[in-house]
Amino acid sequence: DSMGHAMRCIVKNKAVTSVGLQPVIPTLPPRVKDIVKSVAKKHGVEIEAMFLRTRNRQACYARFEAMARIRNEIPKASLHMIGKWSGGYDHTTVINGIRRFHELSAEGVI
User: Are 45 and 59 in contact (CB under 8 A)?
Assistant: First the structure.
């Protein structure tokens, strides 16, 4: 499955992206690290899986929640920075991820 493939691509706290191996956790600010770790644990996914360009439902929901929590808990964080911290996503992807998180929360899915 795609999640299994994505997990096999993870090497020593680095995630494979279209531009090669990118460090994940070490480059995040401390507060963002805390949020990401908390969300990953809640959703039962590896932190690195949240940053992969995967459509795995669990990883996507975790990424959406992390984006929303970062936006809520760190008000000075720009959409551009949240996208960068979330795996190099564009600001419009961050907007959509936050919107999807709120929709899924309202529906009781997350």
Answer: yes
Q: Could you give the 3-state DSSP secondary structure of residue 21?
A: strand
- pLDDT digit string (tens) for 39-55? 999 999 998 888 888 78
**Which residues make Cβ contacts (< 8 Å) with residue 82, sequence separation at least 6?**
67, 70, 71, 91, 94
Q: Say how far apart CA 95 and CA 58 lie, in whole Å.
A: 19
Q: Which amino acid is at 58?
A: Q
Q: pLDDT, tens digit, for every residue of 19-44?
A: 444 445 667 899 999 999 999 999 99
pTM of the entire structure?
0.75
List the one residue out of 24, 21, 50, 53 whose CA is nearest residue 38.
50
